[in-house]
Amino acid sequence: MFVALGQAGVNASSLVTELTTLLMAHMVVEEEVLYPIARRSKQDIVLANYEEHALLAFGLTRLRMADISHESFTGKVTAVRELFSCHAADEERDLFPAVISTFGQPESLALGTKMELRFEELLAMGYHACRFMRGKDERLALQRRSGFTERPDMDRSP
């Protein structure tokens, strides 16, 4: 998809929508399903991955807002591609083998199945819902640190 964004004659707007939705869903799945489990064995890697996700989310937002005809568009695509490529390579090299060695093949396969199912759910929900889901833990942490609590009589459900 990244390569297609640089080719003439493609519907870049549609590709950006598809790409950013896929990547945002990918991040949410990792944060909801994989990282809580992987954190038991590789906390340092997981914490770094959360930071990489924050950078990717920022890049995805900028890419979605970009004018595809502007000269900066290619740079935004390149930045997101590089961030994601490095992130994925690090996970494949360091995180996934650690999860498999810690939890074993059967549990790791079950985890993969759970991640695939959640990924499909998130894709059906779309980019904005995924972005909201991704930020919910950060919002809760901010509320806890600030001492803010919602009033019990206020319904905050979507």
What does this structure look like?
Residues 151-158 have low confidence and may be disordered. The chain has helices at residues 2-5, 12-38, 43-65, 73-125, 127-146. It starts with a helix and ends in a 12-residue tail after the last helix. Helix 2 (12-38) packs antiparallel against helix 3, helix 2 (12-38) crosses helix 4 and helix 2 (12-38) packs across helix 5 (127-146). By secondary structure, it is mainly α. The protein has one domain (13-143). The chain has five helices and no strands. The longest helix has 53 residues, at 73-125.
Key terms:
158 residues; mainly alpha; 80% helix; disordered C terminus
Largest sheet: none
Per DSSP, the total helix count is 5
Given helix and strand content, the structural type is mainly alpha
What are the segments in which pLDDT stays under 50 over at least 5 consecutive residues? 151-158
The tally of beta strands, per DSSP, is: 0
Oligomer: single chain
Radius of gyration: 17 Å
Shape, per Cα inertia axes? globular
N→C terminal distance? 32 Å
**Total domains, how many?**
1
Order of helices and strands: HHHHH
Strand content: under 5%
Helix content: over 70%
- Give the overall pLDDT as a whole number: 85
Map the helices and strands.
Blueprint: H1 2-5, H2 12-38, H3 43-65, H4 73-125, H5 127-146
Helix pairs in contact: 2-3, 2-4, 2-5, 3-4
Q: Would you summarize the structure shown here?
A:
This protein has five helices and no strands. It has helices spanning 2-5, 12-38, 43-65, 73-125, 127-146.
